[in-house]
Amino acid sequence: MGTVRPPRPSLLLVSTRESCLFLLFCLHLGAACPQPCRCPDHAGAVAVFCSLRGLQEVPEDIPANTVLLKLDANKISHLPDGAFQHLHRLRELDLSHNAIEAIGSATFAGLAGGLRLLDLSYNRIQRISKDPIGPGP
């Protein structure tokens, strides 16, 4: 019987690096489109279309690389603080034609740096906190 040698550090490092890359690849694939939305992917820029879906709340599993998010014409009445904070690439957010009544102090936290369009028209907004977008990144 031969002696068992521990793996060489360089092989262990490569193995760990490959595992990490595989895990990152799987996580990217795991960033699935929230049900019942549609998410066409164009050159890594994701558009999430959740219009006219009868949603009562913002989906929690919106892909982090979303650039355009359409949540218009639903039944959303409440926007939790930080609901969009993981969407650092978000440029356009359409929340029009819902039942939103209030905008909290951190509803759009983290979006100040890149958001170009925010549509809140045709809602029931009665109260907007002082700084709902918060400081930029």
UniProtKB/TrEMBL annotation:
Residues annotated as domain LRRNT: 32-68
One cellular component term from this protein's GO annotations in UniProt: membrane
Protein known as: Leucine-rich repeat-containing protein 3
Membrane topology label: Single-pass membrane protein
Keywords: Leucine-rich repeat, Membrane, Repeat, Signal, Transmembrane, Transmembrane helix
Protein family (similarity comment): Belongs to the LRRC3 family.
Keyword DNA repair: no
Pfam entry (one): LRR_8
Location(s) in or outside the cell: Membrane
Signal peptide: 1-32
InterPro entries per the UniProt record, alphabetical: Leu-rich_rpt, Leu-rich_rpt_typical-subtyp, LRR_dom_sf, LRR_TM_domain-containing, LRRNT
Keyword Iron-sulfur among record annotations: no
Organismal lineage: Eukaryota, Metazoa, Chordata, Craniata, Vertebrata
